[in-house]
Amino acid sequence: MEAELAALATSGATTVVALMASDAWNAMRSRIVDLVRRGSATQEDADRAEAEMDSERLEATAAQDGGDPTVVADLEAVWRVRLRRLLREDPSASVVLRELIAEGSAAPGAVHNTISGGQFRQAVIQAGNIHGDIHLG
């Protein structure tokens, strides 16, 4: 069971930090705040956690803009510990976290590419916008 919680916390941490650095944050923030508040013993703890989260969002956006993967990894580690602790204290939070992960992965700005069926003997290019020529080979 511990391995499952660790995997869920890792996935949740990755999702939360990715959301922090994206335009989807505004749509998901209140749900993440509610999740964080579940693990808070007092209102003061909840307010402190929410303020930390807002500060972390600034760090995440700055890291994304500056191309600093170390900061992103550090934030993910913080969230992994935070979520793992929350899941240990409140196992029912796993349902909420799974929903957030699913919704966060499908949030605007998230891209999921899937190629299935058939055989492809040449390069497959999936892109939103291509400006100029593409030369393969």
From TrEMBL:
This is Uncharacterized protein.
